[in-house]
Amino acid sequence: MKLYVVGLGPGDQADMTVRALGALAESELIVGYEGYIRLIQDRFPGKQFLSTPMRQEVDRCRTALQEAASGKTVSMVCSGDAGIYGMAGLLYQLAEEYPPVWIQVIPGITAACSGAALLGAPLANDFVTISLSDLLTPWETIERRLRAAAAGDFCLAIYNPASHGRPDTLQRACDILLETYSPKTPAGVVQNVGRDGEGYLVMTLEELREFPADMLTTAFVGNSTTQIIAGRMVTPRGYQRA
Amino acid sequence: MKLYVVGLGPGDQADMTVRALGALAESELIVGYEGYIRLIQDRFPGKQFLSTPMRQEVDRCRTALQEAASGKTVSMVCSGDAGIYGMAGLLYQLAEEYPPVWIQVIPGITAACSGAALLGAPLANDFVTISLSDLLTPWETIERRLRAAAAGDFCLAIYNPASHGRPDTLQRACDILLETYSPKTPAGVVQNVGRDGEGYLVMTLEELREFPADMLTTAFVGNSTTQIIAGRMVTPRGYQRA
Question: Which chain B residues are closer than 8 Å to A7 by Cβ?
């Protein structure tokens, strides 16, 4: 009857919350994308796991809801946070067809936070979180949002900057930001946070435009106040002004 | 020599990560705003604690850096995340004066994530995080950013919506959003997340305008696609379209 939607954080179990670990321990069945199940499987021996490939989000959510409706305690796992580009929204949309299921969302460390922590403090003031995946949002909407972010002098955390099927979306996004932002605006990328090959790179917006991002990259762009201090990307907040 | 900047999450120790708990256990000295020290003090008996009142951020950071420079392992604690409206930025700015200190930022669950988890899934698509505190950002910049957020049809997580000294900032922010967004746009508030008196309320943008927010409130505004489903605020992401 109970369905936890659990944010796993970036990938390392050390970045999971106590509450997330407790929900998984309490669950009889853990459902998720196969890449995320792999991250936790060995910590919970004896649990039932059910993994599905990418892009089968609706099926995955229906399975979790059906199993919970049949009386099981189920966890649906998401990387990062459960709500930010996670499965919580879709589960609430579908849950009306499975009335007895009680949903609890358990937040996790989203890539904006885990990536920023590696880069320094790029999001220490107002920022925008935007995904460049045009599979789920029309590209015209993405362009409009990038222009709006620049008009507001926001810092940006850019999710899903590029993939095999759309190798140039980060470049196109940078071109839009460069209509407003200086080419020397501090920028950065993180890759494989909390996993083998973890790394970060501080650069400029014009360099970010040339960066070969992949699905495990999160990109960051500063605003007009962002500085590079000792190799880190830092957006001041004005404490020294107050 | 080591300074951890630790995000405590919303307030309940269950929402801390394993890594954050480990950093505090490893530290000889834990520094922070007195309200945050109170949240963790009883879990770490025998530690040295140093708390300062609000608005003394620069002094608090200098103390932490000095103690770390003198050879101690120190944690600076922040509520929510360590970087998002946290102390990580200011510490990097000041750290150049304390060269031997090695800073590590340990992310935590920020209010956008913990609040969204209570309300449903209001931030399941692109969103803006904005603070209404005009102590640290000029109000004209805040207004410009609110207009930009509305121009991009972004969802919003609004930090520091009001305080004793500025009781009307949430109202003024809603008025700006209402220039573009429908008065019936789903909105919500959370209060005292992870603490006594935790609660959430789903409403409309015109109702949010009248809401008596305080310092322990985080406000959320949906975009043109956000729905209220079974009393929760849900922004679809397009999985059913893909």
Answer: 113
Which chain A residues have a beta carbon less than 8 Å from that of B237?
85, 89-90, 136-137
Residue type, A5: V
| pLDDT tens, per residue, chain B with 242 residues | 899 999 999 999 999 999 999 999 999 999 999 889 998 999 999 899 999 877 788 999 999 999 999 999 999 999 999 999 999 999 999 999 998 899 999 999 999 999 999 999 999 999 999 999 998 899 999 999 999 999 999 999 999 999 999 999 999 999 999 999 999 999 999 999 988 899 999 999 999 999 999 989 999 999 999 999 999 999 998 776 54
Note whether A223 contacts B: Cβ–Cβ < 8 A: no
Q: Do the Cβ atoms of B240 and B185 come closer than 8 Å?
A: no
Q: Residue A61 in contact with residue A69, Cβ under 8 Å?
A: no
> Could you give the CA distance from residue A171 to residue B50 in angstroms, rounded to a whole number?
47
What token pair was written down for B42? Answer: 């009883």
Chain B 159-178, residues with CB within 8 Å of chain A CB atoms = none
Residue B154: CB partners within 8 Å, gap ≥ 6? A128, A145, A148, B126, B127, B128, B223
Query: What residue in A sits closest to B136 (Cα-Cα)?
Result: A238
Q: How many CB pairs under 8 A join A and B?
A: 263
Out of A7, A130, A232, whose CB is closest to B92?
Answer: A232
Chain A residues touching residue B80 (CB < 8 angstroms) = none
